């Protein structure tokens, strides 16, 4: 019987879970495979976050500092879990550094992997240097270098953002909506217009899914205040005329083919299941759902249960998720794990 | 193969070949008729800004193409080519040549403002139609409409004297639009008015027609209005990339809205 709760992954969900558990006095072991905590927002160098507009290094950096400064949390950096033996209340987690951690429950906050645009070769990524991803644009902004064409460092006069790259695409086996890319793209479009007021930004979309309150704050505002233009078209290919990139597709609103020159083309890349999931699933003895994300046992009764009792999941590990919802799910999974361990201890006593 | 989009086929896009060789194969007589592809090759970012610089066009950039305006449109119900949603899109994307194809029907907007009520984004499509019709006039794509002539005559009189004199407006309006003054309905109306008009009122009207009285102390107001109209006109012409106002027509229907 162990009171310790193992948290795997130190992104927004894992940081949130670890902090919540420490706050109620539960011993926490936080395992992170990278040397640095913070997950995608920190490791991938995100700029200003949706919806608060705070810089990732401040907002998520603050969560990292809170966990690092908490002596109740034992952090294992550069470490992964090879196997989880035992059962709920008495797990033994074998870590890659050779140690074994006794834990009453485990929370998987193992996150996602950014879609690799090389899998959509017709859209020019990997062929033309000025075809970049939203992550690269985030890095251009967060590094302070600004929006520049990678080929020659010039400021672009015209930028195209292509939505649903690696999402909603059966051709490449990705049938899900990645949930955040529309909002992130609106945000990026406004940031580009803010830095380069003479630069025209076009967003090529199938649908716009800036759900909830993001509708007004991102979609409407990007049009009304920042004059970002939206074109309903699924782009067929991105090529080059030797001077500029050329987008080809069909403008479905005027029912006409388009071949439009651009300086910079941005792929709004989706969220893939973590590439480690095929290894994580047998290590933790859990099932993945059909797309490869970590499966949830139920949707309403309790939050964050997986197919194995005592193993919980939070954040984008179980499907595309926003940062703020990942943080909320981290807290929810922490409560569920803490309640289970407390209950098992009472039964044992 | 069936033709899916017959609506897109315009006579000028039909290419007919008496003799046609494709890849060395003579296909004359079989494939003599083709439809020229109509590819959008660029966006003209200026067009939206130009329309937005004219009264009524300010909110054109808000449109998200739901089609509510076209759905409720009074004119669209009788003329399916009258499609505000489509024109707003052309303006947003700068497809000027495509917009010009419809230059002779855009002015047909009857300003019922059903679109204004229906629009979820407060684009004010009716205003965009007005601005677009005005843009077509200013750019010289369409002649001045009769209503523009009327507005100009009306506002020029008001600006000059602070008053209007109906007889003069009608005379000058007919002159501007090249219509004869002696129109049957007008003669009939004048006859009937004359039959019942009180003598005193007739004298007042006659006096006004001959003397052209002005509102007392009008000069100051006139200078202010003319200055404003000139500034607005200069701003708009600059926004449209046209020659300065001095070279242009005297104050026009703008003053009816802004003065």
Q: Round the mean pLDDT of chain B to the nearest integer and report it.
A: 86
Rg calculated over all Cα atoms of chain A: 22 Å
Which topology of the largest domain in chain A does CATH recognise?
A: FAD/NAD(P)-binding domain
The share of residues in helices of chain A is 25-40%
Name the CATH architecture of the largest domain in chain A.
3-Layer(bba) Sandwich
Q: What is the percentage of strand-forming residues of chain A?
A: 25-35%
* Total beta strand runs of chain B: 4
Shape of chain B: elongated
Overall morphology of chain A: elongated
Helix content of chain B: 40-55%
Strand order of the largest sheet of chain B: 1-4
CATH class descriptor name of the largest domain in chain A: Alpha Beta
Describe this structure as you would to a colleague.
Helix content of chain A is 28%, strand content 26%. With 349 residues, chain A is of the alpha/beta class. Chain A folds into two domains: 5-111 and 274-348, FAD/NAD(P)-binding domain (3-Layer(bba) Sandwich), CATH 3.50.50; 117-270, 3-Layer(bba) Sandwich (FAD/NAD(P)-binding domain), CATH 3.50.50. In chain A, strand 4 (81-87) and strand 5 (90-95) form a beta hairpin. Chain B has three domains: 6-35, no CATH class; 46-138, no CATH class; 146-258, no CATH class. In chain B, 52% of the residues lie in helices and 4% in strands. Chain B is built from 14 helices and four strands. Chain B has helices at 46-52, 68-72, 74-78, 84-93, 96-100, 103-106, 114-118, 125-138, 146-161, 166-176, 184-196, 199-211, 218-239, 254-258; strands at 14-16, 21-22, 25-26, 33-35. Chain B has a two-stranded antiparallel ribbon. In chain B, a hairpin with a 2-residue loop joins strand 2 and strand 3 (25-26). Residues 250-259 of chain B have low confidence and may be disordered. Classes of the chains: A alpha/beta (349), B mainly alpha (259). Chain A binds chain B through residues 200, 202, 208, 220, 223-224, 227, 229-232, 251, 253-261, and chain B through 5, 8, 37-43, 45, 48, 61-62, 64-65, 86, 89-90, 92-93, 95, 98, 121.
């Amino acid at each position: 019987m162990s009171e310790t709760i193992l948290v795997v992954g130190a992104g927004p969900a894992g940081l949130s879970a670890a902090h919540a558990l420490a706050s109620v006095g539960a011993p926490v072991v936080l395992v992170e495979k990278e040397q640095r905590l913070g997950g995608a927002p920190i490791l991938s160098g995100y700029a200003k976050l949706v919806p608060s507009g705070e810089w990732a290094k401040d907002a998520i950096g603050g969560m990292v500092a809170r966990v690092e400064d908490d002596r109740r949390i034992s952090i294992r950096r550069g470490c992964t879990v090879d196997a989880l033996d035992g059962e709920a209340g008495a797990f033994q987690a074998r870590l890659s550094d050779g140690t074994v951690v006794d834990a009453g429950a485990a929370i998987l906050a193992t996150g996602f992997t950014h879609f690799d645009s090389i899998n959509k070769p017709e859209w020019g990524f990997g062929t033309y240097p000025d075809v970049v991803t939203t992550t690269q644009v985030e890095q251009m902004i967060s590094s302070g270098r600004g929006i520049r064409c990678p080929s020659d460092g010039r400021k672009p006069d015209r930028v195209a953002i292509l939505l649903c790259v690696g999402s909603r695409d059966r051709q490449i086996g990705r049938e899900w909506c990645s949930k955040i890319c529309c909002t992130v793209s609106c945000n990026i479009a406004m940031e580009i217009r803010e830095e380069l007021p003479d630069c025209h930004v076009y967003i090529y979309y199938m649908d716009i899914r800036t759900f909830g309150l993001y509708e007004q704050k991102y979609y409407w505002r990007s049009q009304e205040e920042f004059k970002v233009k939206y074109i309903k078209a699924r782009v067929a290919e991105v090529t080059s005329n030797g001077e500029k990139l050329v987008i080809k597709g069909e403008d479905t609103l005027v029912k006409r083919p388009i071949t439009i020159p651009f300086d910079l083309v941005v792929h709004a890349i989706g969220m893939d299941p973590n590439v480690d999931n095929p290894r994580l699933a047998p290590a933790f003895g859990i099932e993945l759902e059909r797309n490869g994300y970590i499966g949830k046992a139920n949707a309403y009764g309790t939050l964050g249960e997986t197919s194995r009792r005592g193993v919980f999941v939070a954040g984008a590990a179980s499907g595309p998720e926003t940062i703020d919802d990942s943080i909320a799910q981290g807290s929810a999974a922490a409560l569920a794990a803490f309640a289970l361990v407390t209950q098992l201890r009472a039964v044992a006593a | 193969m069936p033709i899916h989009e017959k609506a897109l086929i315009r006579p000028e896009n039909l290419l007919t070949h008496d003799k046609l060789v494709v890849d060395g194969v003579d296909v004359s007589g079989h494939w003599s008729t083709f439809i020229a592809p109509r590819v959008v090759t660029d966006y003209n970012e200026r067009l939206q800004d130009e329309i937005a610089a004219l009264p009524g066009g300010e909110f054109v950039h808000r449109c998200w193409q739901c089609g509510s305006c076209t759905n409720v449109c009074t004119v669209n119900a009788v003329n399916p080519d009258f499609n505000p949603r489509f024109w707003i899109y052309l303006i947003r994307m700068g497809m000027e040549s495509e917009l010009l194809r419809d230059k002779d029907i855009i002015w047909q907007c009857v300003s019922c403002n059903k679109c204004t009520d229906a629009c979820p984004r407060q684009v004010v499509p009716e205003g965009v139609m007005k601005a677009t019709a005005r843009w077509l006039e200013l750019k010289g794509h369409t002649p001045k409409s009769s209503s523009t002539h009327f507005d100009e005559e009306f506002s020029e009189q008001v600006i000059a004297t602070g008053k209007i004199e109906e007889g003069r407006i009608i005379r000058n309006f007919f002159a501007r639009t090249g219509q004869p003054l002696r129109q049957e309905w007008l003669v009939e109306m004048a006859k009937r008015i004359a039959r019942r008009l009180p003598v005193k009122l007739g004298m007042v009207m006659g006096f006004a027609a001959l003397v052209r009285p002005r509102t007392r102390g009008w000069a100051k107001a006139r200078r202010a209005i003319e200055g404003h109209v000139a500034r607005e006109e200069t701003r708009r012409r600059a926004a449209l990339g046209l020659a300065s106002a001095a070279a242009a027509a005297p104050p026009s229907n703008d003053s009816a809205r802004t003065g």
